[in-house]
């Protein structure tokens, strides 16, 4: 074990205090609204941050983007319709929630809650991932239960704990009598209001939400001073000692400067923290014995079986408690973190990985192990992650970095220095 030196805290204290005061002075992002029982969250306003993004961004993969965008889908009439539908509460069962309820543009298209809250104040089991750069995901949702953004747009509309419409046809009928929508659908698609064009417009809008042009992109493009020395060291650690690249890169042996994901699924020990081995095994065995098809969407959002992750889709025991590797762009402003929103700061996230958490997890990913990162090295990795914040969120990112840094100096519930510097713990055998 390598203890944290008291003198280091003494030297950092004035800096932390100044940063925290600065964040308060600038008006840090407000916490999500406290809701009364049965109350849905307030609907965010659209605003400038909701607008489709320009393609002229440093770091944007132009060739890949062109391959993933259907021809003719990114036209103004379709995008404007998709944006309007994204904020439309009439698509929900009682007219109170919309896609933007859980994907607020001001919060980089997340909601700031550990797990999302939908119609009638119903809490789901999963954290709302950002929509930014979702077009690059090979699968959608934390468990990859659908492949396309059209499919992704459909499921929350009819999920009883999200938007609560009985059917897609019911959702579209709620706007079919609106003259503005009638005109917009005709202009965009040449058809009357209908569910399929509704999903196409929403998916086209989501594909327009590309987010690059971060300081790190400018550093990669040759601007040596675009990021700090701490962030540069963090980038080196990311690809070496910290082992982040094993999941947050397309290839283990080639640095990924674009998407920061392997598009795969991993059990990193989070499910064990929430459910425990016995409950996970019981849930999995029950599903394997089940003869009827599983409603994966309902299980993921509304059931304790949500902790099974990718297993809900594949029914492979190797996928128990495995979840999709998220991209890392704008990570600073899209907390809380992980599929269940269980980590409040990036320091908590790094502490989790540093100790190789999940020692009682028989399905733990083989790449999880103690990392022996020092406090200074953890700070540097987080400085690199902060450099992935796009310019639209610079102010929010500065405020959030100051908030998280100050919190990390007083509260580190995941830190275990002894385990971080210890050998890898033997993994127990699966219970079945």
Structural account:
The chain is mostly helical and 432 residues long. The chain has two domains: 6-29 and 213-267 and 324-420, Cytochrome c-like domain (Cytochrome Bc1 Complex, Chain D, domain 2), CATH 1.10.760.10; 48-207, Cytochrome Bc1 Complex, Chain D, domain 2, CATH 1.10.760.10. Helix content is 40%, strand content 1%. It contains 18 helices and two strands. It has helices at residues 6-26, 62-68, 76-86, 99-102, 149-158, 168-176, 179-189, 195-207, 215-220, 229-238, 270-274, 277-289, 296-302, 311-314, 346-354, 375-386, 394-408, 417-420, and strands at 265-266, 323-324. A two-stranded antiparallel ribbon has the order 1-2. The protein is globular, with a radius of gyration of 22 Å. The two termini are 35 Å apart.
The number of helical segments is: 18
CATH-assigned homologous superfamily of the largest domain = Cytochrome c-like domain
> What is the SS-derived class?
mainly alpha
Overall, the morphology is globular
Order of helices and strands: HHHHHHHHHHEHHHHEHHHH
Any chance you could write out the topology, listing elements then pairs?
Elements lengths: L5 H21 L35 H7 L7 H11 L12 H4 L46 H10 L9 H9 L2 H11 L5 H13 L7 H6 L8 H10 L26 E2 L3 H5 L2 H13 L6 H7 L8 H4 L8 E2 L21 H9 L20 H12 L7 H15 L8 H4 L12
Antiparallel strand pairs: 1-2
Helix pairs in contact: 1-17, 3-7, 3-8, 5-8, 10-16, 15-16
Short summary:
The protein is mostly helical and 432 residues long. 40% of the residues lie in helices and 1% in strands. It contains 18 helices and two strands.
């Amino acid at each position: 074990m390598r203890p944290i030196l008291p003198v280091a805290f003494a030297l950092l204290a004035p800096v932390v205090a100044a940063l925290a005061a600065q964040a308060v002075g600038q008006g840090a992002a407000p916490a999500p609204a406290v809701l009364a029982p049965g109350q849905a969250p307030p609907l965010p306003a659209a605003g400038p941050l909701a607008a489709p993004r320009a393609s002229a961004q440093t770091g944007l993969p132009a060739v890949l983007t062109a391959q993933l965008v259907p021809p003719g889908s990114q036209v103004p009439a379709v995008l404007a319709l998709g944006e309007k539908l994204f904020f439309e509460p009439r698509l929900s069962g009682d007219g109170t929630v919309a896609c933007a309820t859980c994907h607020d543009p001001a919060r980089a298209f997340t909601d700031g809650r550990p797990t999302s809250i939908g119609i009638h104040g119903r809490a789901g089991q999963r954290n709302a991932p950002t929509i930014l750069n979702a077009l690059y995901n090979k699968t959608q949702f934390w468990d990859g239960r659908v492949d396309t953004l059209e499919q992704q747009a459909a499921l929350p509309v009819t999920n009883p704990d999200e938007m609560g419409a009985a059917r897609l046809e019911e959702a579209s009928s709620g706007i079919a009598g609106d003259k503005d929508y009638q005109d917009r659908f005709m202009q965009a698609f040449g058809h009357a209001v209908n569910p399929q064009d509704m999903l196409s417009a929403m998916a086209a809008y989501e594909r327009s939400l590309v987010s690059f042009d971060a300081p790190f992109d400018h550093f990669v493009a040759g601007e040596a001073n675009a990021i700090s020395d701490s962030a540069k060291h963090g980038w080196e650690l990311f690809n070496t000692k910290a082992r982040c690249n094993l999941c947050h890169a397309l290839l283990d042996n080639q640095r990924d400067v674009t998407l920061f994901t392997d598009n795969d699924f991993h059990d990193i020990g989070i499910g064990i923290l929430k459910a425990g081995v016995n409950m996970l095994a019981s849930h999995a065995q029950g599903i394997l014995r089940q003869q009827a098809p599983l409603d994966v969407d309902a299980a993921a959002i509304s059931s304790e079986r949500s902790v099974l992750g990718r297993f809900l889709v594949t029914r492979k025991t190797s996928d128990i408690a495995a979840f999709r590797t998220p991209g890392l762009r704008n990570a600073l402003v899209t907390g809380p973190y992980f599929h269940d929103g269980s980590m409040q700061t990036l320091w908590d996230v790094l502490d989790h990985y540093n100790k190789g958490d999940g020692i009682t997890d028989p399905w733990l990913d083989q790449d999880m192990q103690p990392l022996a990162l020092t406090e200074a090295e953890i700070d540097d990795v987080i400085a690199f992650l902060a450099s992935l914040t796009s310019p639209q969120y610079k102010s929010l990112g500065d405020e959030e970095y100051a908030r998280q840094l100050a919190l990390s100096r007083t509260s580190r519930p995941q830190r275990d220095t002894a385990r971080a510097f210890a050998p890898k713990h033997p993994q127990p055998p699966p219970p079945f």
